[in-house]
């Protein structure tokens, strides 16, 4: 009869340099009870954690492993990885079942299960010397019930390993259990990681793909509660309220912004598949289930192939993620389900069609498409050209610690939804009229890059997306050229018949796009922000913002810009 815990010889993974360095850092501090590892999404935190667990078991420091993760899908993913590493863990243990099976090394649970019965998990952790692995530990902020439960359940555990790829919070007043903090000199708190491995480190080591951000502008038009039609461009300066409404309107599945960007992403997937990444796929992130279903219909109309739809309340969601991971479908439309921890290496494109704009969610979303499998791969993120998202994209490669500012310094832009002040008696209701899209610029190295003045040869086009071969300006030129094709494909989707008012507005759409393109060229040439050039343009040629300007005003602004450029 096999002895307890006896398993087939595990396949020892080949550790990356950072994982070996992190193990050495742990050994040098092995008397420390808590150890925090911050490693960029896609870098291999699971492999590191399981290797450490085996090391502690073999040295008889611990006898049990308890993994806590955010979702049931990740629970299965952890159990599969642990089994391959020779650490059989129970992924189906519920709060209603008794002791952990003696033939297993431990179990995998979720933060929700711990929150439901923290005393039960405390007893399980105390029954044997346990290593508790808190995956994506940022879910355990003190401001959440999960945080209190985690602190109660694992306070007495002899060893705790905290893992995160996004060490910051959406709310500034939440502290994470078992994480050390130090003052940041400004009255706030900064987490003190025991080992950090950032995106720039992983990019240097070839562990992750370089990310190209393709920003798409467009003009949104909506009717407010007073019956007035308001128009605003995503990329022109405006109030936060107008910006938020223009953003929501652009994401409305009844407009043209969504099918345009889906068509652009589909062309990018086709190019990747024709260039050696035969199973390349894209993810569409939606804000809610209604939008997800509507986006799925648009994907099918644009691409001719129905996408995989992954919803959080679908009992088959985990099975769908697994099937998509190993399948050949071009796209998956999802609501939060693949925001973190889910490993889909063939996903190389992401369409950001959600109003979520926190640093946490943005980093997690982008993290789904950066895992490198071979040399020369790159990831492309298609996003609205709005200030909050462009700022997050520009900061992606910067090292970020978990910083908690003082409560008095809480900022609205740290939250998902900005509060809007209404006039007395005013109701917050808008009705979509129309929304279009056009390629605005490529974000590279924190700067907006517009099309290069020199033409591209067919040979140049073959290299789109291979880092270091095409200049950012050439890549922007190629995306801009393909933009017209994407617009034609988007026009083939079903949409409500435009009113005469909308048809008249669309007559100036090409002029608006030309003005925005010239603004981008002038911004690249002078280093002046787009918003500042738009403001100068309105002073030179008075009138409303370009989104609402007449064709005559737009023609004058185009001519003025061409004079400035010497064209």
Write out key terms for the chains shown:
567 residues; alpha/beta; Rossmann fold; seven-stranded parallel sheet; 19 helices; 17% strand; elongated; disordered N terminus
Estimated structural class: alpha/beta
Q: Identify the strand order in the major beta sheet.
A: 14-15-13-16-17-10-20-21
The CATH superfamily title of the largest domain: P-loop containing nucleotide triphosphate hydrolases
CATH architecture of the largest domain: 3-Layer(aba) Sandwich
Shape: elongated
- CATH class annotation of the largest domain: Alpha Beta
Please mark out the parts with pLDDT under 50 across 5 or more consecutive residues, or reply none: 1-8, 399-427, 456-469, 494-498
Share of residues in strands: 15-25%
N- to C-terminal separation?
85 Å
Oligomer: single chain
Report on the biggest sheet: 8 strands, mixed
According to CATH, the fold-level topology of the largest domain is Rossmann fold
Tally the structural domains.
3
The overall pLDDT, averaged over residues, is 79
Percent helix range? 25-40%
């Amino acid at each position: 009869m096999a002895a307890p815990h006896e398993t087939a010889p595990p396949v020892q993974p080949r550790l990356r340099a950072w994982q070996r360095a992190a193990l050495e850092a742990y050994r040098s501090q092995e008397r420390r009870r808590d150890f925090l590892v911050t490693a960029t999404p896609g870098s291999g935190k699971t492999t590191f954690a399981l290797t450490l667990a085996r090391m502690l078991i073999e040295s008889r420091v611990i006898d049990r492993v308890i993994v806590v993760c955010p979702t049931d899908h990740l629970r299965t993913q952890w159990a599969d990885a642990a089994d391959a590493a020779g650490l059989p863990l129970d992924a189906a243990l519920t709060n209603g079942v008794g002791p952990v099976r003696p033939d297993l090394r431990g179990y995998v649970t979720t933060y929700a299960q711990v929150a439901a019965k923290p005393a039960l998990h405390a007893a399980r952790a105390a029954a044997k010397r346990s290593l508790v692995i808190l995956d994506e530990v940022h879910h355990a902020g003190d401001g959440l019930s999960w945080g209190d439960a985690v602190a109660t359940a694992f306070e007495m555990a002899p060893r705790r390993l905290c893992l995160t790829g996004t060490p910051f919070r959406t709310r500034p007043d939440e502290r994470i259990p078992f994480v050390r903090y130090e003052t940041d000199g400004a009255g706030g708190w900064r987490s003190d990681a025991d080992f950090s491995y950032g995106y720039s480190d992983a990019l240097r080591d070839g562990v992750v793909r370089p990310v190209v951000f393709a920003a798409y502008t467009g003009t949104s038009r909506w009717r407010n509660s007073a019956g007035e039609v308001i128009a605003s461009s995503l990329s022109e300066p405006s109030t936060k309220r107008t910006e938020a409404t223009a953003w929501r309107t652009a994401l409305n599945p009844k407009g043209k912004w969504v099918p345009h960007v889906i068509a652009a992403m589909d062309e990018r997937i086709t190019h990747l598949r024709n260039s050696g990444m035969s199973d390349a796929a894209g993810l569409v992130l939606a804000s809610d289930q209604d939008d997800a279903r509507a986006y799925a219909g648009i994907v099918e109309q644009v691409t001719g192939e129905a996408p995989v739809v992954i919803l959080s309340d679908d009992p088959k969601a985990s099975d769908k993620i697994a099937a998509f991971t190993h399948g050949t479908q071009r796209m998956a439309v999802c609501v939060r389900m693949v925001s973190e921890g889910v490993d889909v290496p063939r996903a190389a494109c992401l369409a950001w069609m959600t109003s979520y704009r926190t640093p946490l969610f943005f980093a997690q979303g982008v993290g789904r498409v950066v895992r490198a499998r071979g040399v020369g791969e790159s990831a492309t993120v298609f996003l609205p050209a709005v200030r909050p998202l462009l700022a997050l994209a520009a900061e992606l490669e910067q090292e970020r610690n978990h910083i908690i500012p003082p409560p008095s310094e809480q900022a609205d832009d740290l939250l998902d939804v900005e509060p809007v002040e209404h006039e007395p008696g005013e109701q917050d209701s808008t009705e979509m009229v129309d929304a279009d899209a056009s390629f605005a610029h490529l974000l590279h190295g924190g700067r907006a890059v517009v099309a290069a003045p020199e033409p591209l040869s067919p040979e140049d086009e073959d290299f789109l997306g291979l880092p270091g071969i095409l200049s950012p300006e050439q890549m922007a030129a190629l995306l801009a050229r393909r933009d017209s094709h994407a617009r034609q494909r988007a026009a083939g989707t079903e949409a409500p018949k435009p009113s005469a008012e909308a048809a008249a507005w669309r007559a100036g759409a090409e002029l608006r796009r030309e003005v925005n393109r010239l603004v981008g060229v002038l911004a690249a040439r002078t280093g002046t922000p787009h918003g500042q050039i738009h403001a100068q343009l309105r002073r030179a040629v008075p009138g409303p913002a370009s989104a609402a300007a007449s064709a005559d005003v737009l023609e004058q602004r185009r001519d003025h810009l061409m004079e400035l450029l010497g064209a």
